[in-house]
Amino acid sequence: MTVIALIPAFNEAARITATVAAARSVSGIDRVVVIDDGSTDDTARLAVAAGSEVVRLDTNLGKGAALNAGLEHVAADADVLVLLDADLASTAAEASLLVRPVLEGRADMTVAILPRPAGSGGLGLVKGLARCGIRRLAGLDAAAPLSGQRALSRAAWQAGTPFAAGYGVEVALTVRVLRAGLRVTEVPTAIGHAATGRTLAGFAHRGRQFVAVALTLARLGLERQSPRVIGGK
User: Fold this and answer.
1) Which of 1, 23, 59, 201 is the most interior residue, by most CB within 10 Å?
2) Which residues on neighbouring strands pair with residue 187, listed in sequence order?
3) Coil, strand or helix: which one is 222?
4) Beta 109-113 vs 150-153: how paired, if at all?
5) Both ends of the chain: CA-CA distance in Å?
6) What is the average per-residue pLDDT within 207-213?
7) DSSP letter for each residue of 88-146
8) DSSP conformational letter for 75
């Protein structure tokens, strides 16, 4: 089986080297692909230097569009996709806990449960909305409905793609994979990333995220409950 990690990145020069190195160290991951989402810093150059393939987007299109560009690059080869954020640094090595159940056939999609970061300023509104929506639409009471760290079998990524726009990526993945009758397992990990604090910028970010998740849930409610297939072998 070919296991490929997709890492969407926007201006992550400070952490991308460590993230790529950690992802490449994971047993079972064959290729690491960074999607440079219109960065204005050295993200792309550093990713290449660290040993990653790089797909470059001319402008910043957002996480969902970046992942779709990465998927187009690897769809013919990816038996398992690993989705990782660019700011994980050395903790990206914890992806081994996500890959193993999929390779062993015990899960179709694994989702990382992250420890709550020190100084996190969130009030839980977005997470609560996402959890409620997933429960109503697909029947799972998810512990980590917004976690972006995942491993997906070919059946799972075919059912869950194309990736939803913006901050709706994770919620849409979970609902679509469950609707396809596939197995989703949440896995406790020690993965860490840069958290948004209780600042004006942090609250603005969470406000945009809340709106995006709400819109995604509304669209999912209108979708036909059948998987979309791209890049099939």
Assistant:
1) 23
2) 112
3) helix
4) antiparallel
5) 13
6) 85
7) -GGGGGGGHHHHHHHHTTS-SEEEEEPPPPTT----SHHHHHHHHHHHHHH----S-TT
8) T
